[in-house]
Prior knowledge:
The chain has 15 helices and 56 strands. Strands 45, 47, 48, 50, 53, 54 and 56 form a 7-stranded antiparallel beta sheet that branches. Strands 1, 3, 4, 7, 9 and 10 form a 6-stranded antiparallel beta sheet that branches. A 6-stranded mixed beta sheet has the order 15-31-32-36-33-34. Helix content is about 20%, strand content about 30%.
Amino acid sequence: MIKPTLFAAVFVSSVAVAAPPLNYDIYVRGAFNGWGTDNVLAYQGNGVYQVDILVSPGNHAFKVGSRDWAAEWVANPAASVTVKPGAAYPLATEAGPEDYLFTKQTATFRFRVDVSDPKHPVLTVAKLDTPAAAPARDPHAGAGATAALTFPTWDGKEETARFSVRDPQAPLRSYAQSTTQQLRDPGPQSTTYDEDASLPQVRSGNLAFDALFALAGHEMKLDSVQEIRDGNYNGGAAIPCDCFETGEKWHYVWTRDLSYAADLGLAMLDPQRVRNSLLFKLSGWRAGVAKAPHVAGTPDGLQVVQDTGSGGSWPVSTDRVTWAFAAEDILETLPADERAAFAAQAFKALSNTIENDRIAAFDGATGLYTGEESFLDWRDQTYAKWITDDIASMASSKTLSTNVGHYKALTVAATLAREHGDKARAARYDGWARDLKRAINARLWLDDAGMYSSLTAAHFDGAPLHKFDWLGQALAIVTGVADGARAKRILASYPHGPMGAPVIWPQQQDMPVYHNRAMWPFVTAYGLRAAIVGRNVAVADAAYDALMRGAALNLSNMENLEWLSGQPLLLDEAHPNLIGPVINSKRQLWSVGAYLGMVIRDVFGVSTTRDGIDVQPFVTAKLRGGVFAGGDGIALYNLRLQGHALDVKLVLPPVPPAGTSGYYAVKQILVDGKPAGSNIPWRALGAHSAIEVRLGDLVAGDTSIHRVNADPYEEAPSVFGPREPRIDGLARARGRTTLTITPADAQAGITYNVYRDGKLVAANVPSGAWTDAAGSAAACYAVEAQYAASGNRSHHSVPRCVDGGVAIAATDARVDANVAIAPANARFAEPHFANWGQPADRFTVRDVRVPAGGRYAVQVRYHNGANQVNLGISGGVKWLALKDTSGRIVAQGVVQLPHARIDKANTPTVYSTPLAARLKANMPYRIELSDFYNMSYLDSNRSFSAAGGTDGQSNRFDIYGVRVLAIDGTEP
């Protein structure tokens, strides 16, 4: 299930009725209510359930489902249906793609489900007349002080945010904020909030700047909860946890969301709550799980949880290691008496995570870790269109952001190993980190682009793609993976629109706004941090502007915004399937952390170290001449760190002339009136200390920035990449290979690049036949499309290999398994070993021979229908060994068998990730498949509602056979 969007108000009539036909509650769950359970269908009698929901403009995905998703009803289990008001839709009582409701105006819709026949429910949706709202009261009436921020819009207009306070001299202010911009969710165009005595306050001489900081603190408090919930866990019931929930529409804790939010700002302000949340994302083995022979780590299995997701979670996705970003911050901010216990847990969990990721997700041939892009986890949005039919190809690719996450995990674990006296492990993790940094720079850096590739192509290709993401670039800079020269080029090269930097570049056609065509505040905040490292004033100013604009005009720190317009919803009536952001939440946790960190860590320059604090403010000339023009200083009061209450004041130089660029150097730092350096140890701070930072000369800095623009309603080649082409024909004759390049569409101005074994061998060729005179009989090919004018490129095509491979079906006499073979039927076209994969199950293939010696890839042909391709924790993760006649292991390792597309009529088979091996001609080999583990083996998932949860671990799938494919020269 994709994540939620809009708020919905509910109006339900109460009528005395007979007993309902269902013995459980049923809900309308969708993008207008956070996929939650706010909208229960109330029984009206005569088999009819009903609920009225206020829905804001958009094209909203939804389903009818029970609290625990055990019941899931959709109009068509094979394809999404756009529901028209007034029409009747029989519902299939099984899982399937979301249905959609489109509305161009905020309106109330009545959802009625007739369950007279519980096996054949029928849905109707009717639009109701919505009463006119009462005239809004002026939220600024009677204010003692007011301020306004005005922002230009993409279409030549202006939007204004106004701020007011009744008593500007009060120690703790109460603010009102209003906006002229149409908000994402139905509701008033204003809000109020108070400063909190437990949090710092800002006094800058600019009421709007002070207010926006207070807004972020207020939203941090709203995200601070005593219980969390998610419909997929604990039957949807609350789970006690003094944690941070993820946002107004997200009432759970997710590993990456929490970790980035904590790293950006929350760890400094509430380390105990961050610690609690981090510990919630650790788990050991569930009861009854026996550790498989090749699994590493301590007997309890304590490790970081990879959340539900693509192909059934880990190791298709491996960015659980981002946990280390937050853990490092907590180790610097927790009081000493609490730190030791957390450090011990963190060391064990990180060590177990690292050791098993090394087994399951490390590719020794490239020196990189496999796994989906961090946070960019909606496959269609950032990967090739064909990837949803081959999730194993996504699992085998390598991505920048996730590999930088592994680098951070290794460096943090090495530090903890030294702290715990484990010199051997410290040396190992230091070495792995050093090698990984070298591999990232060798394998992912694209010198022609001046940036790192976001991801490589799949196995049998492996080339770094000309696809880029701002989070990965920024993390490479802030972690030190990118050296100074590379950092400088990245900051100057990554494209920025008029409202800020998109999270990916270029954008992808035929996809709505979410990760695609979007700007995310937390990613912008990492871009700001990277700009400060690289002293790029233009990129820093763009980030400051974007973060302030987003919070000011939306009355909240939103999840994401359309990148060219800055809108929380771009309503494209002509293309309702492209409307978005399709998902958006107020007070999104990492956006809140981003804003708080922008003020504390970036503007005031305060960050924590193990021994104290570091003070390095980054105030640009644009800030000084803009929001800070009203006085000679700005102050941050009541910043509480390690038992110290700190007041930090920046003494500002005179306002510079208009148009001046640069940032101000630190002239002097005083701690309680005494000179100090930028690194201030805890021992130099009292219970309440005043830090004064006097800024001096203006430093030019770097002003390089790559600006782009386009109409947000057009898929312009200047900001989009082309659709990926196909290889429709591949033939080899007389030592030459001819492939046929088929365009995805008839767009003009596109040429094609050909890759053999992951290397570019032909550029700017036309579509149609292309012949390679140099490739071997074991070569594999892929092609990409490129706009001639902009240079923007597509994803690569599905790779095609010359060798057809040696295929062995499940029915072959050489195949043996401990489960019975299932016959073919209408849905499963071939005989297969059904539901294979219990921990004790075994599968072997003997006498496997290849016709010529060389490098080969061994793959299992399978189908895994345990869940949909975007959901769950039940991706197949097994150990594959290839042995010779003496029993010597020729090759072994983890293979992944992720969730695959489920087709009601005829379920297609797919191939696992490959195991590479060097084989001799006509020699008999033996293939053995045995257990490893997936996330369903962890105790934290015992209450999960789908496969791998309440019914026990699930690492099962259907096996149709194996193939051995010649791949000389490629990286599988």
